[in-house]
Specification:
2 copies of one chain form a homodimer.
Chain A lengths: L2 H4 L5 E2 L2 E2 L6 E6 L4 E8 L3 H18 L4 H17 L1 H12 L3 H24 L6 E3 L13 E7 L3 E4 L13 H9 L3 E4 L5 H17 L7 E4 L5 H8 L5 E5 L2 H13 L6 E4 L5 E4 L1 H20 L11 E5 L2 H15 L4 E2 L3 H15 L5 E5 L10 E2 L2 E6 H6 L11 E7 L2 H10 L3 E7 L9 H10 E6 L38 E7 L20 E3 L2 E3 L2
Parallel strand pairs in A: 5-22, 7-8, 7-10, 8-9, 10-11, 12-13, 12-19, 13-18, 17-18, 19-20
Antiparallel strand pairs in A: 1-2, 3-4, 5-6, 6-21, 14-16, 15-17, 22-23
Helix pairs in contact in A: 2-8, 3-5, 3-7, 4-5, 4-7, 5-6, 10-11, 14-15
Chain lengths: 532, 532
């Protein structure tokens, strides 16, 4: 296969390569800063308009197609992606600077997510069918028959994320869950992986064609600025928005939503610093092991994960001294890595330098192994600060996107609790505990639950399992709405709304609500869960 | 019982009568414009602060109390309300001008809602427990054990609604669902029913006392202006807001949320005009019957329902002529009724007069039976307009709160469809169809589903059943978030967020997630719904 010919740089509107005359945007390999094959075209406002018009048109048909066909469409995307998996991983590697095995794994994660949602919609119970049957003889008033299920919300705008060029991008979890819900998707490609986006976009377009979906169900637009994103988010035809990225970016979308005449659901996952609390016994007995484990987690993917452990908390003592020394040593021996983009690399350098200048913050470890032959390199850094100083300086809670962590040292358990009470909302919080130690910290855990979407015991926050129990979301500022998740099957609920039918003719009800339960799904009938 | 002594006009902060020095607010009987017994005190900003501080403190304990105790608390509120039911209904009647039987019924609806949520939390499955068990041998990576359930979101601010002095007020559906979710509640009383609010507030405070709940779980604040509402909505300790009322009021809260540093879930139910489509055969064969039915629905509660049928749609013809004549006649014979407040009465008069001046709008019926002995009287009105004019004038879609409806006459089915396509989001849409007629209108129904939270066949939209399948919500502007409902058991989901525990110690998990399923609730375990 000829890679250069495979990557088409035009926008994809309604599953078709669009005429593109906009300014060219080029793809860059961050590790060389050289331009990669392919010439991409900035979408125009008219392109955005057309994509949303086509999405709205397609919605009329797509929302009503039966679950099995929707599942077949998602599986067809899997096939198309799988067919180009090696090229895809290679291109994503070149564009992101992430290691090839990680990207090969990410292709699998992406297709796994699509398959998961295919299974979910095919099984069908996700629509939460709830039925209250009629009681015509009830006094003082008869009771109507009322049947409730989730329906799709309409066209969804998805923003590709820089740090997962596949799993949180064009055919990532947001797109998969929106398509599964019955929503057309317009993706704004992330400029950090244009070729990857184009390849995946073409794969989706092929699947649309092969499975006979309405073409407007998918569009992909390129932009290296903010114009197209803003146009899409503010457009009246957009019915929901999904975003994974920075606090600044996410809040910009939230503010744009406030300027809309009609507010819509916007889900912005804006990252967090993912506190890890090392309890005294654990750190006293496992300091070496914990240091190794966390050096790995801090530097995985060059620290460019939403769930990167950016904050380590512990009480002072011999165990902590050992842990600190060991973690410092280990991080010093981890070589620099290529950051996703020049901007991200610069931001990391600036922020980690600035934080080291804050009062009371001491940089205690910095890797010396800088790869001079590659560009966009950043090295792991570890800083430390006293709990007292940390509590007094909110700046120290800001996320530093990259292989960085701040170790906060408390005088005692009471001060440790105080630190936790001061924490902002988080995607995750982790506790490292010795056997039988956790039960002594119920108050601390209780506070962490209030602040967090996912709690982990004796593990690392990086590595987000894609499954039905996953919660990838959390109190502000980790997301703007803690009631939703962007990973796992529950991600679909961002894009669906309940509708009730009252005293409707059975044959004209959606299949999920008909008396005979033709889809054989789980339903609540007069408060009893049943498949009958 | 001495009514005057029973009604205490002080604010209730943390379930206790607070010292109140603020300006006095008086309660008015709208049908006489006379002052009613009781002297109420405007809450201060410091009161609002204290109520939220106490709510936050109480949250620490309240969120963790076992379901059975929460249910007992809700049922204790039922007992306290039931104990004063006659006084309550009588006072609500005096304050609202609504008929006494309606208010007696509303006491029942209010206690019914509280019991429904008591049953829901006691049964326990609402927390949506979802478990993915570990796969330690999975390749390439072991899978963690992940367990997810809903937890309460924190202190909720509830706004009492004018039109349901009991069921959508101090102990109404918002309060009941928030308390059931595990959230303390701070209620801003509606100034249109101060005494009713005070009585119910005292009932809740007693139940807090009797069942040993943390006192901060409930506060009730009075204000006849906007200051306290704004203070509460903008306060950082507020974690969610529930509101039922006007578009203007709801959007003011949505805008305040946009000004918060931390966005929170705000659910604003802002009403709608609830289109009713009379299909040709139905109107041809049942014109008299339909006119009677709808005259009743339009004037029920003096038209002061969120689900009042403010828009009637039909295709011209003999049947429609009969319907129109019959509805006009019937409405003319319905006497005036007392509106909830002077402001609401004036607004109704002004808006219904203004709409009659719009180009092409003709007022075709106005009751002549004005009760001259009572104040705040409004009469039913029916206006008509062509579909063409309606489509061209968005003003005609604005809600006129009161016993008013606009009959839109289409030339043919195609034009009827056009009208429906132009409609804004609605709480309800109703179709009146003859047997076998509905199936010919699948396109029309499909468009209505997109616009609506609840579809009704051959009924009236007024009368919202409180049950698990109810959807009382809908696309904007009927609410600001169509994914939620404010009536029925699903109302609880506004105030809960998922949390996942990963590889946690079984004994330290919330009971809902422990391996043995001690609460015996429905759970999804490795994608299988089970009570095991």
């Amino acid at each position: 296969m000829n890679k250069i010919k495979m990557i088409k740089g035009q926008n994809i509107i309604a599953s078709q390569i669009a005429e593109s005359n906009g300014p060219a945007i080029l793809a860059t390999n961050p590790s060389t800063l050289q331009t990669l094959e392919g010439r991409f075209f900035k979408a125009s406002k008219a392109d955005a308009e057309r994509a949303l018009q086509e999405a709205t048109k397609a919605y009329k048909a797509y929302k009503n197609i039966e679950p099995a066909r929707k599942a077949a469409f998602l599986r067809s995307i899997v096939e198309e992606i799988t067919a180009i998996a090696p090229i895809l991983a290679e291109r994503a590697q070149a564009e992101s600077g992430l290691p090839l095995p990680r990207l090969q794994g990410e292709v699998g994660r992406t297709t796994g997510q699509l398959n998961m949602f295919a299974n979910l919609v095919e099984e069908g119970s996700w629509v939460d069918a709830t039925i209250d049957t009629a009681q015509p003889d009830r006094l003082p008033l008869p009771k109507s028959d009322i049947r409730n299920m989730l329906v799709s919300i309409g066209p969804v705008v998805v923003f590709g994320a820089s740090n997962f060029p596949l799993a949180f991008s064009v055919a990532g979890g947001d797109t998969a869950s929106a398509l599964a819900a019955g929503c057309p998707v317009v993706v704004k490609a992330h400029p950090a992986h244009l070729g990857t986006s184009a390849l995946v976009g073409q794969a989706i377009a092929k699947a649309v064609e092969k499975t006979g979906m309405p073409k407007g169900v998918f569009s992909l637009l390129f932009d290296d600025g903010y114009e197209i994103g803003e146009t899409l988010v503010k457009h009246p035809l957009t019915k929901a928005v999904a975003f994974t990225g920075s606090y600044r970016g996410g809040m910009a979308l939230v503010k744009m939503n406030a300027q809309r005449e009609q507010p819509i659901p916007v889900f912005a996952e804006m990252g967090s610093i993912n506190p890890v609390v090392f309890l005294p016994q654990a750190i006293a007995t496992q300091s070496e092991e914990l240091a190794k484990k966390y050096a790995g987690s801090i530097t995985l993917g060059a620290g460019q994960f939403c769930t990167n452990p950016g904050l380590l908390l512990a009480v002072k003592g011999e165990g902590l001294d050992n842990f600190k020394a060991s973690l410092s040593r280990t991080l010093q021996e981890i070589p620099s890595a290529t950051m996703l983009t020049e901007d991200i690399q610069k931001n990391y350098e600036n922020l980690s330098a600035a934080i080291a200048l804050e009062n009371g913050v001491e940089l205690i470890s910095e890797s010396r192994l800088i790869n001079k032959d590659a560009k966009c390199q950043s090295i792991p850094r570890l800083a430390t600060v006293s709990a007292k100083t940390f509590i007094g300086n909110a700046k120290l809670q800001e996320e530093i996107f990259g292989p960085y962590s701040l170790l906060v040292i408390a005088e005692n358990n009471a001060e440790l609790l105080k630190v936790v009470e001061q924490l902002h909302g988080q995607l995750t919080a982790t506790l490292m505990a010795a056997p039988n130690e956790l039960s002594q910290y119920s108050e601390l855990v209780d506070v962490l639950v209030e602040k967090t979407g996912r709690l982990i015991l004796n593990g690392v926050p990086t590595g987000v399992e894609v499954c039905s129990a996953m919660q990838h979301g959390g109190p502000f500022p980790s997301t703007n709405d803690s009631r939703f998740t962007s990973v796992g099957t529950k991600a679909i609920y961002r894009f669906a709304r309940p509708v009730a039918w009252q005293d409707w003719e059975d044959a004209l009800l959606p299949a999920a609500l008909q008396a005979a339960n033709p889809l054989k799904i789980w339903r609540s009938v007069d408060q009893v869960l049943t498949k009958d």
